[in-house]
Write a structure and sequence with these properties.
It is found in: Cytoplasm. It is built from 20 helices and 42 strands. It has about 800 residues and is α+β, with helices and mostly antiparallel strands. A 7-stranded mixed β-sheet has the order 28-31-32-38-37-36-35, sandwiched between helices. Strands 3, 4, 5, 6, 7 and 10 form a 6-stranded antiparallel β-sheet that branches.
C-alpha cells in the first residue's frame, strides 16, 4: 500500500510531523514501513516551458525545432523528437545542467546541426513507470496545465515533492489498505481524530435509479451486498491534474474522469467500485449469478475468458458483462461516448474471488481487497461519494436513490477484557485512565464495570474479535518500546540431541573431514529436476500458486540441487568442487494425491574436478567413482555400518552413467545410489564430469542402533596370505569378496584387494585380481595347516562360483 503524505495531511494535522518520523512511529505500532520515497529526489533544474513555435527539422523526418518560453527574456531553442509536440502547449523542460532519472545529466548540444538548449521531457524521463502514465502521453511528452507558470519548477504541479510511504500490510490488517484506514491508524498514534472532506451528494429527485435499472442477486452468500447508482449526462474527459497526480503516485494509471474516480475511491475507502456504460448494457436489468459452462467474456484487457460455475459474474440479465470483483467486460466499459454511468458498489465472497483471480491469473487492486476483506459499513457511502465526484468532474447528475439487489446487515461486535488481564499479558501497570485514552483514540466505544471493559468494535476493524486482539491494540498504541523488559523465570531443563540428530551431526563432521563443503539448496524446483535421480516412485507435489516455474514443485531428490550449485561454481571458474547436503525430500503416492507429502531425510554428495591439485611434486588427480565411494566408506566405517553395506552395479538410472553406477545396499535393502552423472544430463546442467551419491539418512539412523563392543588386541600374531585370480571381466570385486568371506572360516580378519591387471598376457575379456587375506586367532597361534585348509576351501568356492583360474 502506497500512502501519500500530502493526501494524509488533508485528514490530520501533520504539520509538526515529518514523513520519516511518521514512518518510524507506524513501524513501532505494528504496520511495517518498507520505505519512504520522494519522487523529485535526484532531479533538478526541471521547469515549466511553453512552446511558442514548432517547425520541422530540415534534416530529419521526425525531429522538430521548438522555441520555448522558460520564463526568461529570450526564447530557448530545443530540438524535440516527440510525435505530439506542437505550438501552444506547456511542457516539462530539463534545462542545460539538469539531471533527469537515472542521474543522467542534460547538456547544451546540437542535433543534426541545430542547437538544442536542454530537453522537452516525457514523464518516463522524470522516473514514472510506463504502467502509470496516461495512454495519451505514453509515447510522447506530457502536457502541463495552461495555468502553470513558465520557468517554475514542475515538481509541485506534479506532486513530485510529496513523500510516498510504502506500507507492508499483513493479511489481518486489511483495514489499512485504504487512506481512511491509515488515517484512523495515524490518528490513534498521534491522538487525533481524522476529519474527512468527502464530496457531498446532490441527487435529482425527479427520477429514481429503479426507473433506470432493476438489480437481482441470485445468491446472497456469493454477493451479500450489491447496489447500483445512476449518473446521467456525463461528459468523459481527462481528470484534473490533482487527481491524475494522486493516482500516478499511488501506482495507478489515469484513464478518464469516471474510471479515475472509481480508483480514487478504491484507495480512499478500500471499496472496489465498477462503472458500466449504462447504454451498453443493452437492458434495464442487472443479474448477479454464477457463470455457466461454455459462457465467454472479453475482459478489459482484451482477453477472452471461458467461464465456469466457480466464477461470480455480473450479467445484463442474459450475457456476462463483468467478472465480479476481478475485472470488467470490454463491451460495457466507459468510453469517450459514454453519457450515462451505472456505478456498482458491492461485496463479494472472498473465497470465490480468490479462486477466480487464480484461475485467470488476474491479480487486481479490487480482487486483492475483496480477498482480504473490506469495511462493510461504508459500501453505500463509498458509492455515494464516488457518484458525487463523478457528477462534479464529469458535469453529470446523480439520479436519486440506489437500485439494491442485496444488503448486508451488520451485527454489533462487543469484546470484553479486564484491566488485570491486560496488565498480566503485557507485564505493565496501566491504570484505567491510560487504557480509556487508548480506546478513545482508537475510536472504540466502551463501557467499564469494575475494571471490566465491554468494547464495541467499529466495522472498519473487522480483525478484532477476541480478547487477545484488544490486548494487542492496547500494546500497539501504548508502544511496544514502552513495554517493560523482564527476564524469564522458572526452572530450565538442559537440552540434548536425539540419537538421530547426533548421527547427522557426526556424518556432517566426517564428510567435512573428507574435504566436502555443506550446501543448502531450495526445496522448491522445476518438475523436471524434481523427478530426476529418484530413489522410489512418487507423484510430484505442486504448489497451487508458485512464485515462478523454477520454484513450483517440491523436490524428490537432493542431487539436482547440488548439480545447480556445481554449475554455478563452474561458471565462476571454481572447478574443484566437493559438496554435500542433508535435507528433506518429499514423496507422494498416486492414490493419496490429496494427502500431505511424506518427508524423508536424505544425504547427497557431488564431486567434480581434481581431488589432488598439481604442484611442484604432485600430479593432479581427477575425482572418479572410487573417490566418492571412498568417502562414503569412511563414513560407513565411522558410524559402525561398514560390515552391513554392499554395492551392486546397475544401469537402470537414466540420469547416471550405465557403466559407472551402483546401488548402495544396507543388508538387503537399497538405501541409495552412487555414480557418474550421465554425459547428456551433465550437458543439460552445463557441468563437467561429475560424480554424485544420494542416501536415505532415515535408514542409516534406524540401522545405527547397536552398541560398540570393544575387544582387547590379540597377543597372537596375524598371518597374511596372497591369492591371485584370473576371472571374467564382468565379475565384480564385491562378488569375489563375498565368496571369500563366506568360505575362509572364522579366523579371517580382513580381505584386501591390492592389484587389478588387464593387458599383455591376459585375454581381452579377462582380468587378474590379487587379494591379501589376513587371519588371526585371538586364543592361539595359527599354524600353516589351518591356513591352508581355509585357502583350499576359498579356492574351491571361487572356481565353482566364477570358474576362476588360480595363478
Amino acid at each position: 500500500m502506497l500512502v501519500s503524505y500530502k493526501w494524509l495531511s488533508e485528514y490530520l494535522d501533520l504539520s509538526k510531523i515529518s514523513a520519516k518520523e511518521l514512518s518510524d512511529q507506524m513501524s513501532l505500532t505494528g504496520i511495517e514501513v518498507e520505505g519512504v520515497e520522494v519522487p523529485q529526489e535526484g532531479l533538478k533544474k526541471i521547469v515549466v516551458g511553453e512552446v511558442k513555435e514548432c517547425i520541422p527539422h530540415p534534416d530529419s523526418d521526425h525531429l522538430s525545432i521548438c522555441q520555448v518560453d522558460i520564463g526568461e527574456e529570450e526564447l530557448s531553442q530545443i530540438v524535440c523528437g516527440a510525435p505530439n509536440v506542437k505550438a501552444g502547449i506547456k511542457v516539462i523542460v530539463a534545462l542545460p545542467g539538469s539531471r533527469i532519472t537515472g542521474n543522467q545529466k542534460i547538456k547544451k548540444g546540437k542535433m543534426r546541426g541545430e542547437v538544442s538548449n536542454g530537453m522537452i521531457c516525457s514523464l518516463q524521463e522524470l522516473g514514472y513507470s510506463d504502467n502509470v502514465i496516461p495512454k495519451a502521453y505514453a509515447d510522447g511528452i506530457y502536457y502541463m496545465p495552461q495555468d502553470a507558470v513558465n520557468g517554475s519548477d514542475v515538481f509541485s504541479y506534479l506532486d513530485m515533492d510529496d513523500s510516498i510511504i510504502e506500507l507492508s500490510i499483513t493479511p489481518n490488517r486489511a483495514d489499512a489498505l485504504s487512506m481512511r484506514g491509515v488515517a484512523y491508524e495515524v490518528g490513534a498514534i498521534y491522538r487525533q481524530t481524522p476529519t474527512f472532506n468527502d464530496e457531498p451528494l446532490k441527487e435529482d429527485s425527479t427520477e429514481s435509479a429503479s426507473d433506470y435499472i432493476d438489480v437481482e442477486v441470485k445468491d446472497t452468500t456469493d454477493t451479500p451486498a450489491y447496489q447500483i447508482r445512476i449518473i446521467k449526462d456525463v461528459t468523459i474527459a481527462e481528470s484534473p491534474l490533482w487527481l491524475q497526480n494522486r493516482l500516478m503516485n499511488e501506482g495507478i494509471r489515469p484513464i478518464n474522469n469516471v474510471v479515475d474516480v472509481t480508483n480514487y475511491i478504491l484507495l480512499l475507502f478500500g471499496q472496489p467500485l465498477h462503472a458500466f456504460d449504462y447504454d451498453k448494457l443493452a437492458s434495464k436489468k442487472i443479474l448477479v449469478r454464477r457463470g455457466n459452462a461454455g459462457e465467454e467474456l472479453v475482459t478489459l484487457d482484451g482477453e477472452k475468458r471461458e467461464l465456469s460455475n466457480e466464477n461470480i459474474v455480473i450479467t445484463n440479465g442474459k450475457s456476462p458483462v463483468a467478472l465480479a470483483g476481478v475485472m470488467g467486460g470490454a463491451d460495457s466499459e466507459i468510453t469517450d461516448g459514454t453519457t450515462t454511468v451505472a456505478l456498482e458498489a458491492a461485496l463479494f465472497d472472498a473465497v470465490s474471488i480468490r479462486k477466480t483471480s487464480k484461475e485467470f491469473n488476474l491479480r487486481s487492486e479490487s480482487s486483492s481487497r475483496f480477498e482480504k476483506g473490506i469495511n462493510q459499513a461504508t459500501i453505500g457511502q463509498a458509492g455515494d461519494v464516488a457518484a458525487a465526484m463523478i457528477a462534479k468532474l464529469a458535469g453529470g447528475t446523480v439520479v436519486s436513490g440506489t437500485a439494491v439487489g442485496s444488503e448486508v446487515k451488520l451485527d454489533e461486535i462487543t469484546v470484553s477484557v479486564t484491566l488485570s488481564r491486560i496488565n498480566k499479558y503485557l507485564g505493565t501497570s496501566l491504570d484505567l485512565a491510560t487504557v480509556n485514552e487508548i480506546f478513545e483514540t482508537l475510536g472504540f466505544e466502551y463501557t467499564v464495570d469494575d475494571e471490566t471493559y465491554g468494547v464495541t468494535v467499529p466495522p472498519r476493524r473487522w480483525d478484532i474479535t477476541i480478547e487477545a486482539d484488544l490486548i494487542e491494540e492496547v500494546a500497539r498504541i501504548y508502544g511496544y518500546d514502552n513495554l517493560p523488559s523482564t527476564l524469564p523465570k522458572g526452572e530450565t531443563v538442559a537440552g540434548s540431541l536425539t540419537s538421530g540428530q547426533q548421527l547427522v551431526r557426526k556424518i556432517k563432521g566426517l564428510l567435512e573431514g573428507c574435504g566436502l563443503s555443506e550446501a543448502i539448496s531450495y526445496a522448491l524446483t522445476t518438475e523436471n529436476k524434481s523427478s530426476q535421480f529418484m530413489m522410489r516412485k512418487s507423484q510430484p507435489t505442486r504448489l497451487q500458486w508458485p512464485m515462478s516455474e523454477e520454484r513450483s514443485v517440491l523436490r524428490m531428490n537432493l542431487v539436482s540441487g547440488l548439480l545447480d550449485d556445481v554449475a554455478y561454481n563452474t561458471a565462476r571458474k571454481n572447478t574443484n568442487i566437493g559438496l554435500y547436503e542433508i535435507g528433506r525430500v518429499f514423496y507422494r503416492n498416486e492414490e493419496e494425491a490429496q494427502e500431505l507429502p511424506y518427508e524423508e531425510n536424505h544425504l547427497a554428495v557431488a564431486l567434480s574436478g581434481n581431488q589432488t591439485v598439481k604442484d611442484w611434486q604432485t600430479k593432479e588427480v581427477p575425482v572418479d567413482f572410487y573417490t566418492i565411494k571412498g568417502m562414503l566408506e569412511v563414513m560407513f566405517d565411522s558410524i559402525g555400518l561398514a560390515d552391513s553395506i554392499s554395492y551392486e552395479a546397475v544401469d537402470d538410472y537414466a540420469e547416471l552413467h550405465p557403466g559407472r553406477t551402483a546401488k548402495v545396499k544396507l543388508n538387503e535393502t537399497v538405501i541409495g545410489f552412487i555414480g557418474q552423472v550421465h554425459p547428456s544430463i551433465a550437458k543439460e546442467y552445463d557441468i563437467p564430469e561429475t560424480y554424485v551419491a544420494e542416501l536415505n539418512v532415515k535408514a542409516l539412523v534406524e540401522a545405527n542402533t547397536h552398541s560398540f563392543v570393544y575387544q582387547p588386541v590379540t597377543k597372537f600374531p596375524a598371518i597374511s596370505r596372497d591369492i591371485a585370480l584370473l576371472v571374467d571381466e564382468t565379475v565384480t570385486n564385491q562378488e569375489l569378496v563375498e565368496v571369500i568371506t563366506e568360505n575362509a572360516g572364522k579366523y579371517l580378519q580382513s580381505v584386501h584387494l591390492f592389484d587389478v591387471y588387464q593387458g599383455a598376457n591376459i585375454a581381452d575379456d579377462k582380468k587378474s585380481m590379487a587379494y591379501s587375506l589376513t587371519f588371526v586367532n585371538a586364543e592361539a597361534t595359527l599354524v600353516d595347516e589351518e591356513i591352508n585348509k581355509s585357502l583350499a576351501k576359498v579356492e574351491k568356492a571361487l572356481i565353482e562360483a566364477f570358474n576362476v583360474t588360480i595363478r
